[in-house]
Amino acid sequence: MSEFERARDGAYDDLLDAIEDGEGYYLECGNGHGWLPPRRICPDCGSRDLTEEPLPDAGEIETYTVIQVAAPNFAEDTPYVTALADFGPVRVTGMMNDVDPETVDTGDVVGLTVGERVTTGDRMLAFEPR
Amino acid sequence: MVNPRVPGVGLTHFGEHPERTGRDMFAEAGLAALDDAGVSPADLEALYYGNFMGEMAEHQGHEAPMMAEAIGAPEVAATRLESACASAGTAVRQAVQSVRHGEADVVLAGGAERMTNIGTAGATEALSIAADDLYEVQEGMTFPGAYALMARAYFEQYGGGREDLAEIAVKNHDNALPNEYAQLRKEISVESALSAPMVAEPLGLFDACPITDGAAAVVITSEDYAAANDLDTTVGIVGTGQGGDKLALQDRQYLARTPAAERAAEEAYADAGIGPDDVDFAEVHDCFTIAEVLAIEALGFFEEGEGITAAAEGATRRDGDLPINLSGGLKAKGHPVGATGAAQIAELTKLLRGDHARSDAVPDATTALAHNAGGTVASTTVHVLEVRQ
């Protein structure tokens, strides 16, 4: 396996690149439904007219969990917090970057960044306090 | 409408059987169902087989023909269905539709899953692939973690807490005590549930179903075939429904409601010509305690925000108005994910026939319901069963 470089996951990796450059975005249809890429059609209203919009700078944690038992490829990250944050038109899943799980609460304001998984070094969507 | 009958059901013991191959388990459950019905493998016209993680747990794809061969029907039209933890629910639905449409008269629906051979960490990884790999799993979401997100969202919106969830675990463990097929036949207390180690806060070890090896199968026939072959027509499937939702929690309208199950229930109730008030008891998909709460609300048994206290207040207990998970549920009976939807039908059939260890709890019941959910309820099947008096 190791002689093959892992292929990029298209729009997912493009989004992470953009967030690293401070230019995070999401896709929005004319009715204000927001999604992370790739999307060719709005799953809520069927609109195919989706445009890239800048991601709001801050979101609010709606719910979170402290993961104690993880898959092997996250073993060295535990315990860690995975949360859902409301960024207005789009909701995003991310891991909390460098945070004491005890201090996290719903309603906390966070920004979206790119984090690194301790166990494997893989990139991922992550939140940092704002 | 021709309503299929369920003349035979079969189960393996649900538990830790790491050395048992999927083919061996499905052969046991499938042949048990055929023998229970009095149907020969050679008479089967189709096999619908549910399995989720065969590639990861057994390095085995293309399982449908192997499973047909394992039950002595190598030439039958065999199809594997994968819908995560609802795989066997979709298999049952395919079987029901196939018989109703007149394309087959006698079919087998079931499923199998081998899980404990890859350990807790391996099973955690395998289960996580039911979620969105890019936008959930890469961000650390596990299967318990996803339900933990839903549990916290529920508490925030409606109230309730870990004590209420513990009451559900206590109830389902108690129901499983005499069930010879169940994995966890031990009494627990609210205190022991609350002091168990955390898995994904706010869910602890006793909020989670165990990791389970097992198989289940049900024979489904047309009314005419059952009559012509003198099969037991006591129990039939009179309603089927299936609903979907976006895969990732982040893309859903609700975090503490499960519209896929609401849609599946609405369709199944209309199909059966009944409403939630007509259901006497049900097996619902309690992979985690919070999942039972979400299920009984989505099925219309309780208003939104009221399902959380149903176990604590007794309504869903064995002696309550609407017993839920008399088998022990996924929580105590165990959850071999690709088999669970068929196992629910098998348990309900025996409860209705009167030969289940918990049949005494529902002596006059006529209508039962099965709710089988995939992933974080991105797919759901609901089936309504009736007993012919």
Structural write-up:
The complex is a heterodimer of chains A (130) and B (389). Chain A has 130 residues and is mainly beta. Chain A is built from one helix and eight strands. A five-stranded mixed barrel of chain A has the order 4-5-6-8-7. In chain A, strands 2-1-3 form a three-stranded antiparallel β-sheet. In chain A, strand 7 (109-116) and strand 8 (123-129) form a beta hairpin. Chain A is globular. The termini of chain A are far apart. The mean pLDDT of chain A is 95. Chain B is of the alpha/beta class. Chain B has one domain (5-118, 210-387): 3-Layer(aba) Sandwich (Peroxisomal Thiolase, Chain A, domain 1), CATH 3.40.47. Chain B is built from 14 helices and eleven strands. In chain B, the strands form three sheets. Chain B has a five-stranded mixed β-sheet, sandwiched between helices. A four-stranded mixed β-sheet of chain B has the order 8-11-10-9. The model of chain B has no long low-confidence stretch (mean pLDDT 97). Chain A binds chain B through residues 9, 12, 35-36, 43, 62-75, 77, 80, 82-84, 91-95, 101, 106, 117, 122, 124-126, and chain B through 120-122, 124-125, 128, 134-136, 138-142, 144-145, 148-150, 152-153, 156, 197-203, 246, 248-251, 255. Strand 4 of chain A pairs antiparallel with strand 5 (198-201) of chain B, so a sheet runs across the interface.
Topology of chain B as a string of helices (H) and strands (E): EHEHHEHEHHHHEEEHEHEHHHHEE
CATH topology descriptor of chain B: Peroxisomal Thiolase, Chain A, domain 1
Q: Determine the N-to-C terminus distance of chain B.
A: 19 Å
CATH fold descriptor of the largest domain in chain A: OB fold (Dihydrolipoamide Acetyltransferase, E2P)
The DSSP helix count of chain A reads 1
What distance lies between the first and last C-alpha atoms of chain A, to the nearest angstrom? 40 Å
**Structural class from helices and strands of chain B?**
alpha/beta
Range of helix content of chain B: 25-40%
Radius of gyration of chain A: 16 Å
- Please state roughly what percent of the residues of chain B sit in beta strands, choosing from under 5%, 5-15%, 15-25%, 25-35%, 35-45% or over 45%: 15-25%
Provide the CATH superfamily of chain B: Thiolase/Chalcone synthase
Largest interface: A-B, 36 and 35 residues
Give the C-level CATH assignment of the largest domain in chain A. Answer: Mainly Beta
Principal-axes geometry of chain A comes out as: globular
Question: How many domains of chain A?
Answer: 2
Name the poorly predicted regions of chain B: none
Outline type of chain B: globular
Low-pLDDT residue spans of chain A: none
